């Protein structure tokens, strides 16, 4: 088991630690340091990962602060890591305790039903131990403005080049979703969080030569992959944050958002921004090319009632942000929620 803060030699290293681990642990140390006295518990991840990450986190605290800011940085590394025999089953977050959970998917040691994540104030994607990425920090610990943009880019940037190879089979599902959304010929259609632009050809065909399609994404590597795939021929590609779109009010006839809403730190604020740029009667298509339960299973967890795309949560959230839900489908092979701008 590795329980020291070490990494392989080579490029991208800082003081013997992969630079990405350093970035993540340095940020957490900065956020957690002033909250002394504190116990930080690291759990989840593959075998030994919690102890190893905890060691890196402890090392990230400045030497002068270590003695008094952090009582203990524990990496739980029992026989099953974060499974049923883990201390996470008895520990709840407390004012002087922070749980950092390493998400590593079905083969990892984390709680398979998402309990580890539910109890954690910090969730880190740990599929690649050399490239950990922060996916959640409780807003009481840090304003999302401090980490969300950079960490989202780190997460999706690392996946951009292989995205279409991995998920290319899904294109007919995107065409089906665009058909259901039925933008008018001549409309402006936005694909927000467009990634490599898999929906763009279908959107361009639907709005026709008089229409216009803009793909927006905050990850430059995703838009680069979209250009490489030739999708600039059918749409303008713009680097933009869905929470602050560089567009005037009420210009779009359709907003297409595939795999976006669940990644926003404040889904309600995001939906309100999508409503701002959509004309009355315009549509919002929230889509994913697999059903929610199937996707959760792929990630090694079960669905939780508090997820924003649960119908019971989504319908009132849409209503509160200027949308009326028209249709909600969630079979195994796709997720689709179609709403109309009120
Ligand atoms: C799961 S991927 C889906 C990509 C594409 N829509 C697809 O279905 O293949 C999510 C995409 O949303 C982008 N994204 C995440 N948060 C965003 C935000 N706040 N603003 C714009 N894009 C965002 C990511 O960069 C990533 O490309």
From TrEMBL:
Domain of life: Bacteria
InterPro entries (UniProt xref): Methyltransf_11, Methyltransf_Superfamily, SAM-dependent_MTases_sf
Domain Methyltransferase type: 190-286
UniProt cross-references to Pfam families, sorted A to Z: Methyltransf_11
PANTHER family found in the cross-reference section: METHYLTRANSFERASE (PTHR42912), N6-ADENOSINE-METHYLTRANSFERASE TMT1A (PTHR42912:SF93)
Protein name: Methyltransferase type 11 domain-containing protein
Organism: Paractinoplanes durhamensis
Lineage: Bacteria, Bacillati, Actinomycetota, Actinomycetes, Micromonosporales
């Amino acid at each position: 088991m590795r329980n020291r803060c070490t990494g392989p030699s080579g490029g991208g290293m800082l003081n013997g630690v992969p630079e990405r681990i350093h970035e993540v642990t340095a940020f957490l140390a900065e956020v957690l340091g002033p909250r002394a006295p504190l116990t930080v518990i690291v759990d989840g991840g593959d075998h030994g990962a919690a102890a190893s990450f905890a060691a890196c986190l402890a090392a990230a605290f400045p030497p002068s602060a270590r003695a008094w800011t952090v009582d203990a940085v524990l990496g739980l590394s029992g026989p099953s890591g974060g499974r049923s025999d883990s201390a996470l089953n008895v520990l709840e977050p407390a004012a002087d305790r922070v749980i950092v959970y390493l998400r590593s998917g079905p083969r990892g040691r984390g709680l398979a039903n998402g309990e580890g994540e539910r109890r954690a104030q910090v969730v880190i994607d740990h599929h690649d131990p050399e490239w950990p990425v922060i996916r959640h920090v409780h807003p009481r610990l840090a304003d999302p403005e401090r980490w969300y943009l950079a960490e989202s880019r780190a997460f999706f940037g690392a996946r951009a080049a292989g995205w279409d190879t991995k998920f290319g089979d899904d294109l007919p599902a995107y065409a089906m979703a665009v058909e259901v959304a039925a933008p008018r010929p001549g409309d402006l259609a936005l694909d927000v969080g467009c990634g490599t632009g898999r929906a763009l050809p279908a959107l361009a065909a639907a709005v026709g030569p008089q229409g216009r399609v803009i793909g927006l994404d905050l990850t430059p590597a995703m838009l680069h992959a979209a250009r490489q795939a030739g999708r600039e021929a059918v749409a303008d590609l713009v680097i933009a944050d869905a929470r602050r779109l560089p567009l005037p009010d009420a210009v779009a006839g359709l907003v297409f958002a595939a795999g976006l809403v669940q990644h926003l730190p404040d889904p309600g604020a995001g939906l309100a921004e999508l409503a701002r740029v959509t004309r009355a009667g315009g549509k919002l298509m929230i889509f994913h090319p697999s059903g929610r339960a199937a996707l959760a299973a792929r990630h090694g967890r079960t669905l939780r009632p508090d997820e924003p795309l649960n119908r019971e949560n989504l319908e009132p959230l849409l209503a509160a942000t200027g949308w009326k839900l028209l249709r909600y489908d969630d079979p195994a092979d796709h997720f689709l929620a179609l709403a109309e701008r009120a």
